[in-house]
Amino acid sequence: AANMYIDQAMILGANEWYAMWIKAQILAEKKDYKNALVFAQKAKDYGDKNPNSFWYKQDVEKALVEWKGKK
Known about the structure:
Layout: H1 2-11, H2 17-29, H3 33-49, H4 57-68
């Protein structure tokens, strides 16, 4: 259900780093690290464009490293 809600949020225009980060976390919980990495990278890309509101930068960067080893 969480995956459906975040997908709907992204469709409605929430294509920002936080929505991408939530999607990445949902996928990682499902052990879908390949796709989690895609969304974590998108979150980082969006967040780097708006560093003043990129509150979870360290968490996103840490996940990018950790999840690469779990492909």
